[in-house]
């Protein structure tokens, strides 16, 4: 595979940081598994890892969207749209005395497990189609009536909220924007000896493997009768492996401060700006 970030290496070379590893399926229902060796070269050379290698899980980009990103987006939809739906329904309950007590997030979500959006809207003496779509969106985001794919559920929920196809595509692209917030992943265009395009290194999915269970090549694994064992399939360039190590260190070295501290910082900033007496013209 010709690439400036995937190196050609000999099977005789030892395992190093940046090696891409693979485990072939052991049964019909199993999937190919990929990983990235993150143990530092100096630790490997000095045997500081006690014959253990630390590795990060790598998954296809579509799997990342379906199993990691989409569930996060659906939780956000649930939180936000449940509040909106409660406000709309409580407005009807208060205005028309529907014989119902005001709803909160918990009671509305419980109601959605027992009734259809149409039945709920009818109970508050309304036929508002926009409200029906909103409740259908919340119900889907909660997982009721799921298609089995959370990414497909997310796209359907977006459609119920009136989000255009173009806007949906833009949102998916933003999912891989490594400059937004504190990403816990690294996207790579491709992997050696892997089909498909777009793979994600999961920085929070950290595992260890004993050196005896990791082979330098697929051939080595098959020779000892372990065709489904992890084996090396390639190595990332120094630039890419250092990038992954840096992002991993940054992710787990961040120190969060209490909300009160953050608010105090904001207030101090505002007081500073006021004390500088900067007018509208910037003079």
Question: What do you see in this structure?
Answer:
- The chain is an alpha+beta fold and 283 residues long.
- It is built from 10 helices and 8 strands.
- Strand 7, helix 8 (218-223) and strand 8 (230-236) form a beta-alpha-beta unit.
- Helix 2 crosses helix 5, helix 2 (61-96) runs parallel beside helix 6 (150-160) and helix 5 (129-141) runs antiparallel to helix 6.
- The radius of gyration is 26 Å and the shape is extended.
- The model has no long low-confidence stretch (mean pLDDT 90).
Query: Spans with pLDDT under 50 lasting ≥5 residues?
Result: none
β-strand amount:
15-25%
Largest sheet: 8 strands, mixed
Overall SS class: alpha+beta
Mean pLDDT: 90
Helix content: 40-55%
Order of helices and strands: EEEHEHHHHHHEEEHEHH
Oligomer: single chain
Label the overall shape: extended
The separation of the N and C termini measures: 58 Å
Rg:
26 Å
Number of strands: 8
Tally of contiguous helical segments = 10
List keywords for this structure.
283 residues; 10 helices
Q: How is this structure best summarized?
A:
The protein has 283 residues and is of the alpha+beta class. It has ten helices and eight strands.
SSE topology:
Elements: E1 6-7, E2 19-23, E3 33-37, H1 41-45, E4 52-60, H2 61-96, H3 105-114, H4 117-123, H5 129-141, H6 150-160, H7 165-174, E5 185-188, E6 199-210, E7 214-215, H8 218-223, E8 230-236, H9 238-253, H10 259-276
Parallel strand pairs: 7-8
Antiparallel strand pairs: 1-8, 2-3, 2-8, 3-4, 4-6, 5-6
Helix pairs in contact: 2-5, 2-6, 4-5, 5-6
């Amino acid at each position: 595979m010709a690439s400036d970030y995937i190196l050609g290496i000999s099977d005789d070379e030892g395992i190093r940081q940046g090696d891409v590893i693979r485990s072939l399926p052991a049964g019909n229902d199993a999937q190919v598994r990929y990983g990235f060796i993150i143990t530092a070269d100096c630790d490997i050379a000095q045997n500081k890892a006690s014959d253990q290698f630390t590795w990060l899980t790598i998954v296809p980009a579509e799997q990342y969207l379906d199993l990691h990103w989409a569930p996060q987006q659906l939780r956000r939809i649930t939180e936000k749209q449940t509040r909106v739906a409660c406000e709309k329904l409580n407005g009807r309950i208060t205005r028309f005395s529907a014989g119902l007590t005001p709803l909160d997030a918990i009671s509305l979500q419980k109601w959605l497990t027992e009734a259809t959006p149409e039945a709920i809207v009818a109970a508050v003496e309304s036929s508002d189609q926009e409200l029906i779509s909103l409740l259908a969106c919340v119900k889907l985001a909660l997982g009721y009536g799921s298609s089995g794919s959370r990414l497909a559920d997310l796209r359907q929920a977006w459609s119920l909220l009136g989000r255009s196809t173009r806007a949906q595509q833009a949102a998916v692209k933003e999912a891989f924007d490594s400059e937004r917030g504190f990403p816990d992943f690294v996207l790579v265009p491709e992997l050696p000896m892997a089909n498909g395009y777009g793979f994600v290194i999961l920085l929070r999915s950290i595992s260890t493997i004993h050196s005896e269970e990791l082979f330098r090549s697929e051939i080595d694994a098959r020779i000892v009768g372990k065709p489904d064992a992890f084996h090396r399939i390639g190595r990332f360039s120094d630039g890419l492996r250092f990038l992954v190590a840096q992002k991993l260190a940054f992710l787990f070295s961040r120190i969060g401060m209490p909300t009160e501290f953050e608010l105090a910082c904001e207030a101090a900033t505002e007081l500073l700006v006021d004390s500088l007496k900067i007018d509208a013209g910037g003079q």
